[in-house]
């Protein structure tokens, strides 16, 4: 018997902490290296017995000559810090490879476990003594229980009842191969790699591992490649839900077989008990949750008491599931399935999601890494055989998916994509492997091999999916899609984007003064842009996609909504209703409301691809700043500016950015909008003139066209003069055509200025006269009238004049619309990755 050194001033009887080994001789030749090797053998017959000191929870401090690491609580805190820092550092290193987060976290466990740092005696004995591992394992189990509860909350079980024939076919062909391989391989390999365990349990468990597809990771992958709302996305998600369910059933059956020493009847009763438990919990919790939702007034949070009762219920369900012989996390998962979507589900996730995933779940990955010991692999042939089994099962999934795609008359490429997506592994597989280790279905060597294969396969399959399944769409700019070249009597297609309902009134006001009529109608696509943030939001939108009977065009993606789910649902409804109301009261306008879910770095792809698909002539984007109550401009989200710049750089149609300073309010108060078009010349200004031409006919708009001309002898090189002269000829033609068309009651004014200073002075004289300025960006233009302004630009994407008018230093109270002409080049092509991520609004998942 060996005991840890204790503080000399404490009674031994109260503070002893020691290890008991069944085999005393084994202890004599053990070393600190053996210390953590025992961790990977805890489920073996010669596992060490660890005794704990009942009162050594917290120390009196280092000033009292006590080592905090000798006490349970400070040691756990230090271990938690080490685990989090290691996993985050690993994630930072792997970030360029775009690997799932769980890969870095389990690799962090490898580093700290018996494979690497655990073999350093001082590190193992000091920071991860055997007596401390039960605390880590217990906290990891609590985190896993609540994580599976969250996953259950996010999944809509009604989707399974609505699974169509195609999903059933794909599920069948993706199951039959892995099941056959699992049965044959399990029978043949059991005596070699699993001697001493129950053969039936191992065979059943191996079938479940080979069949499973990680639903949560699959949803995130589909979101990243923008295929969630596509036919492929809906098909593979429905199939993954079924295969996950089957894997859990096989897990329950196999662990029951292992615990009952191969008694099939006992295992069957465990499965039946699990089924009855699921039905009872689902019906009872479902009714209780709906009762809570009904008692919660609309727009208010669920009462704290109700939330507390629900969270306690998670632990009750986990305890009950463990008591009937299934597993605690199975009970928590079923309990989560019973909680309906809505304010209740959103609130629960927002309250515990970050804490569980950011703090407790990494402990589970660390424990998995601790249990994975490369030095437990003593049979190299076993590695090769299991690798063949796993690869063979993956190949049968791909082959079955190709056959299913052929039967469903889908392209061969889509069949390959389906097969790769169905091979997506992740945290679910790791959870099942740990359950198999806990229940003694898997021995140390088999567990280690399967975990390593899982990590390697996930590392390889992720980039393969990105290459094979991510759609690449090439658009050809076959016609000029600009306002100037658009037939005035044909339908003008516009894409109006909004990040929140706050921006909608001004966008509708801008649309209204653009004067759509039955003779010159508008078709408006109102696109609500939602940031994609995190796994939880992915699954909520998955529910929307899977449960929606209507679908958009094939291979159009719709990833997850970010942030508060119900908040975004409410926002989308408000935006949709606002545009629909305008459509009903205005003549000559047709509106289709859509929601786009994406991460900001790729959101411009969604906007551009949708504009290409719908052949829009104009995209209207909100500025990245909004006006506050005191009139100052505040940044809405810094990433919106990058989005606007990317759209300006990539769109083939015209693009406008609206700097809103209460455009809706100013016109409503005055009953008439005063609009000024600032014309300096160039393609962008001519596009702005074409847009202003539509405003000129509106009876509620007083348009003034202010043309800025250089004084004779204004500074500039001869090359600049020639550019201005050539551009001036086109400008004169456009202005002449504008006046010939009637120009409504527009006022035309020319202002002679000699340099940028005079231009700024002239603009300051105009301050207070107008509600809206329209100006071209002036990309590529070199004019003495604006020379030097770009050096002080804060937002260069607005152009020199647009940036000046938007600047707080200028002091303008008027809104500004900055326009860029579509970048048309004969025969030019635009390559986009992924379709637009759009869903019909309102996008409210129903569970």
UniProtKB/TrEMBL annotation:
Annotated localization: Membrane; Plastid, Chloroplast envelope
Sequence intervals crossing the membrane: 71-94, 106-128, 134-155, 167-189, 201-223, 235-258, 264-285, 305-335, 355-372, 384-408, 447-469
Residues covered by the Cation/H(+) antiporter central domain: 523-666
Example of a GO MF term: antiporter activity
One Pfam family this sequence matches: Na_H_Exchanger
Biological process according to GO: potassium ion transport; proton transmembrane transport; regulation of pH
Keywords: Ion transport, Membrane, Potassium, Potassium transport, Transmembrane, Transmembrane helix, Transport
Record-linked InterPro entries: Cation/H_exchanger_TM, CHX17_2nd, CHX17_C, CPA2_transporter, Na+/solute_symporter_sf
Protein topology in the membrane: Multi-pass membrane protein
Signal sequence coordinates: none
This protein's GO CC annotations: chloroplast envelope; endomembrane system; membrane
Family: Belongs to the monovalent cation:proton antiporter 2 (CPA2) transporter (TC 2.A.37) family. CHX (TC 2.A.37.4) subfamily.
Official protein name in the record: Cation/H(+) antiporter 15
Organism: Dendrobium catenatum
């Amino acid at each position: 018997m060996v005991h840890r050194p204790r503080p000399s001033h404490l009674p031994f009887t109260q503070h002893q902490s020691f290890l008991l080994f069944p085999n005393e001789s084994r202890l004599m030749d053990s070393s600190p290296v053996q210390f953590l090797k025992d961790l990977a053998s805890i489920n073996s017959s010669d596992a060490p017995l660890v005794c704990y000191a009942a009162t050594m929870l917290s120390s009196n401090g280092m000033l009292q000559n006590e080592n905090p690491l000798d006490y349970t609580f400070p040691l756990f805190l230090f271990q938690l810090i080490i685990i989090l820092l290691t996993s985050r550092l690993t994630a930072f290193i792997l970030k360029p490879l775009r690997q799932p987060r769980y890969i870095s976290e389990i690799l962090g466990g490898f580093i700290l476990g018996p494979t690497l740092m655990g073999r350093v005696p001082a590190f193992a004995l000091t920071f991860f003594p055997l007596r401390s591992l039960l605390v880590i394992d217990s906290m990891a189990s609590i985190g896993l229980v609540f994580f599976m509860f969250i996953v259950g909350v996010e999944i809509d079980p009604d989707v399974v009842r609505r699974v169509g024939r195609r999903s059933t076919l794909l599920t069948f062909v993706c199951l039959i191969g892995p099941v056959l391989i699992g049965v044959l391989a399990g029978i043949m390999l059991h005596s070699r790699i699993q001697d001493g365990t129950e053969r039936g349990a191992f065979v059943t468990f191996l079938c479940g591992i080979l069949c499973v597809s990680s639903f949560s990771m699959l949803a995130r992958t589909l979101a990243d490649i923008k295929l969630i709302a596509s036919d492929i996305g809906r098909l593979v998600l429905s199939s993954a839900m079924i295969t996950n369910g089957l894997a859990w059933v096989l897990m329950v059956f196999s662990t029951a077989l292992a615990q009952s020493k191969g008694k099939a009847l006992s295992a069957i009763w465990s499965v039946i008990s699990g089924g009855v438990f699921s039905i009872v919990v689902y019906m009872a919790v479902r009714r209780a949750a709906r009762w809570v939702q009904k008692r919660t007034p609309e727009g208010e949070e669920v009462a704290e008491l109700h939330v507390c009762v629900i969270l306690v219920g998670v632990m009750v369900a986990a305890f009950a599931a463990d008591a009937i012989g299934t597993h605690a996390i199975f009970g928590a998962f079923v309990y989560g399935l019973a909680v309906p979507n809505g304010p209740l589900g959103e609130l629960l996730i927002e309250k515990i999601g970050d804490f569980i995933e950011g703090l407790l779940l990494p402990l589970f990955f660390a424990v998995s890494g601790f249990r994975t010991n490369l030095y437990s692999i003593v049979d190299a042939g076993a590695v090769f055989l299991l690798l063949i089994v796993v690869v063979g099962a993956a190949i049968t999934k791909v082959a079955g998916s190709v056959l299913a795609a052929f039967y469903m008359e889908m392209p061969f490429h889509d069949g390959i994509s389906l097969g790769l997506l169905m091979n997506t592994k992740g945290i679910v597989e790791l959870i099942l492997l740990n359950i198999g280790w806990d229940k003694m279905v898997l021995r140390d060597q088999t567990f280690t091999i399967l975990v390593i294969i899982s990590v390697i396969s996930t590392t390889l399959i992720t980039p393969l999916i990105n290459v094979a399944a991510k759609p690449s769409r090439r658009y050809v700019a076959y016609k000029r899609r600009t306002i100037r070249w658009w037939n005035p009597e044909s339908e003008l297609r516009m894409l109006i984007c909004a990040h929140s309902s706050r921006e909608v009134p001004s966008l509708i006001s801008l649309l209204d003064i653009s004067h759509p009529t039955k003779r010159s109608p508008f078709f408006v696509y109102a696109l609500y842009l939602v940031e994609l943030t995190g796994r939880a939001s992915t699954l909520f939108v998955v529910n929307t996609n899977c449960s929606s009977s209507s679908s958009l065009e094939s291979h159009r993606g719709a990833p997850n909504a970010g942030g508060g789910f119900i908040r975004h649902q409410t926002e989308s409804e408000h935006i949709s209703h606002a545009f629909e109301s305008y459509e009903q009261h205005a003549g000559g306008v047709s509106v289709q409301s859509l929601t786009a879910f994406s991460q900001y770095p790729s959101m411009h792809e969604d906007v551009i691809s949708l504009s290409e698909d719908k052949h829009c002539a104009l995209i209207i984007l909100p500025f990245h700043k909004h006006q506050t109550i005191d009139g100052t401009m505040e940044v809405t989200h810094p990433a919106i500016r990058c989005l606007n710049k990317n759209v300006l750089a990539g769109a083939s149609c015209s693009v406008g950015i609206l700097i809103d300073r209460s455009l809706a309010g100013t016109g409503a108060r005055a009953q008439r909008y005063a609009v000024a078009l600032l014309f300096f010349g160039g393609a962008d200004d001519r596009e702005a003139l074409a847009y202003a031409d539509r405003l000129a006919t509106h009876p509620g708009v007083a348009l003034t066209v202010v043309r800025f001309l250089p004084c004779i002898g204004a500074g500039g090189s001869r090359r600049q003069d020639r550019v201005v002269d050539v551009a001036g000829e086109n400008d004169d033609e456009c202005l002449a055509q504008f006046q010939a068309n009637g120009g409504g009651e527009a006022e035309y004014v020319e202002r002679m200025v000699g340099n940028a200073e005079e231009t700024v002075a002239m603009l300051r004289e105009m301050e207070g006269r107008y509600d809206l300025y329209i100006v071209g960006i002036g990309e590529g233009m070199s004019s003495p009238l604006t020379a030097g302004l770009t050096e002080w630009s804060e937002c260069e994407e607005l152009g020199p004049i647009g940036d000046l008018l938007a600047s707080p230093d200028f002091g303008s109270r008027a809104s500004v619309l900055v326009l860029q002409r579509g970048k048309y080049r004969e025969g030019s092509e635009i390559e986009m990755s992924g379709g637009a991520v759009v869903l019909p609004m309102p996008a409210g998942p129903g569970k």
